[in-house]
Amino acid sequence: MDKKSSESYGSNQKIRIQSYLPFKLVNFFDSRTSRTRFLILERTTNTPVKAASVIEEHLQHKHDSQNSVKTHLSHLLYLYTWADEHGYDLDTWLLTGEALSNPQIRSFGSWLKSYIGGNGSTLSHTRKKTFNATISYCCQTSMWCVSQFARLESSNTQRALDIAAIKDAQESMWKSVKLLVKDDDAAPDMTEEEIRTVEQFLKPQNRATKLNEQIVYRDYLIWRLVIEFGMRIGEILALRLEDCPTRNSPYFRIIRIEQRGPDYRDPRKNPPRPKTRSRDLGILLRNSAFPVLTNDFITEHRFVWKEAKGRKIKQFLLPHNFLIIAESGDPLSISSVEDIAKTIRENTGVDFHWHLARHAFFNRAYAAITQIQDKDQKAAKIQDLVVYGGWSSEKSLEIYTRRARKERARLALNFWQTGESSWTALD
To answer: How many helices (H) and strands (E) does the chain have?
Structure first.
């Protein structure tokens, strides 16, 4: 492959985030397909990148989840940046099915490692995983473009064999630049004291004198949904009123966005699209805050103030049916819910984030299952836990397995054994 020009721009050694890349990923809503679409643009000119648009179309057909499309394309920003800095015409390569050479792949790997790691020569465990994910997505892109656009002067049968050989070679070359990542990381956890500290900080009676009651009850509701059910924060933001427990259906319904029907709309600019499996989550704890907490929130605190005849009144009927709302009455945004986590960190001293609370739940649930002596019962409970967590296989439980091995004395949530339990840190 030839360069666009003889000029080589080199790579910047300092840490840079995607907002400083010369390419950016933007999204827009396509009313025709009722899906979020994506474009990679040159940052200075806002010119769409042609090959990326073709790849985006392919990914839209391949994936139900729009987050999967977004993730794939966001990793390609690095490949486009590397090509731009080195004077390569990546668009032409991809649209003509011309595979990257081994030296070019190694050059990209070296550049990416420096880009992600900054001045340090050693990448953290997390950054190694980011590096390997980027390599994987770039490899998939290259192989798909080869299969679609490679111009080979051979018969149909021979062409298929030639394409397969090129793809095998590409996969091997991309794989060779991946970094070794040891699978010894255990799920992070919260101590009982940390859980108790967050619980006491967020309890409405401890905050109501300082803040709007709507905010106080909303924040506490989010916390209890995560710590009691192990819900992902995206799942919570996507909950609708009809997904909440009722007298006839005493459970939360987690429904994939793709399964919500053609009329489903989310007005948020960046709507949550949890990568999850649909499932029903029943109330497990004897000292659960539910369903009272959701019922009280919906009937007393889910409203917006409106002016009517010179005075303010509460309007409970909102133009959407999402459970968790901002003061404006709009569905709460992802950035706003992360601000709540920041407030918790700053006021409790706990290094808190929402997924940490999810880990705290599943660490204890898994620890309880490991204490079951009957093998068949234990296997059945493991499958129950996989479903409850919204995972596709037991492989997702490996980080909890490693945590359980490290900390055998960790409190177990025994409802996974007996069907009932209390969690004293939440009293």
So the answer is: 16, 6
Residue 126, token pair as written in the block: 């997390």
Query: What DSSP string runs through 260-276?
Result: S-TT----SSS------
Task: Give the contacts of 110 (CB within 8 A, at least 6 positions apart).
Answer: none
Tell me the C-alpha distance between 293 and 200, whole Å. 16
For residues 340 and 420, give the distance between their C-alpha atoms in angstroms, rounded to a whole number.
31
DSSP calls for 272-283: -------EEEE-
Max Cα–Cα distance, the chain, nearest Å: 80
Q: What domains can you pick out in the chain, each with its CATH number?
A: 18-176 (no CATH), 204-350 (1.10.443), 356-426 (no CATH)
Both structure tokens of 203: 């309890």
Cα-Cα-Cα-Cα torsion 137, 277, 287, 217, nearest 10 degrees, comes to: 70
In angstroms, the CA 240 to CA 244 distance is 7
Tens of pLDDT, residue by residue over 60-94, are 999 877 888 999 999 999 999 999 999 999 999 99
CA distance 424 to 420: 13
Coil, strand or helix: which one is 185? coil
pTM assigned to the model: 0.69
Q: Are 84 and 22 in contact (CB under 8 A)?
A: yes
* Torsion angle (degrees, nearest 10) of CA 131, 136, 141, 147: 150
310-349 per-position pLDDT tens digit = 888 999 999 999 999 999 999 999 999 999 999 999 999 9
Instruction: State how far the Cα of 305 lies from the Cα of 366, in Å rounded to an integer.
Output: 44
Q: 3-state DSSP call for residue 314?
A: strand
Q: Which helix (DSSP H) or strand (DSSP E) does residue 87 occupy?
A: none
In the block, residue with structure tokens 């643009």:
41
Six-digit token pair at 375?
A: 């093998």
